[in-house]
Design brief:
This protein is of the alpha+beta class. It has one domain. Helix content is 37%, strand content 27%. The chain contains two helices and four strands; from the N terminus they run E-E-E-E-H-H. Strands 1-2-3-4 form a four-stranded antiparallel beta sheet. The protein is globular and about 40 Å long. It starts with 6 loop residues before the first strand and ends with a helix.
Length: 93
């Protein structure tokens, strides 16, 4: 995200499951969650920013239909950790 206030919610181990990097982050006080990743087989990094609930929906769909681009282990862990973070935010509100 390039912002010093950026908070990482989840990061997948580099070089594992076909990703050079894969992480979900947010900036406190701003809307939206960013998913940034780069597959080892591709030259172009991906950066998606969306509403928290849209991110949950995206990860849920990818987990339900795993593929070589979206392995179950990656999406399942990212989704579980994101949902835990949402619960913490709700408890703090």
């Amino acid at each position: 995200m390039g912002n010093p206030r950026c908070r990482i919610i989840y990061t997948h181990p580099a070089g594992k499951d076909g990703f050079s990097y894969f992480y979900i982050a947010y900036v406190p006080g701003q809307r939206g969650i960013s998913l940034k990743f780069k597959r080892q087989s591709e030259d172009i990094p991906m950066d998606m920013t969306m509403d928290v609930h849209e991110m949950v929906t995206l990860l849920s769909r990818k987990r339900t239909s795993p593929s070589s681009d979206w392995p179950y282990e990656v999406t399942d862990r990212a989704l579980r950790i994101l949902k835990s973070q949402i619960i913490r935010w709700q408890e703090q509100a």
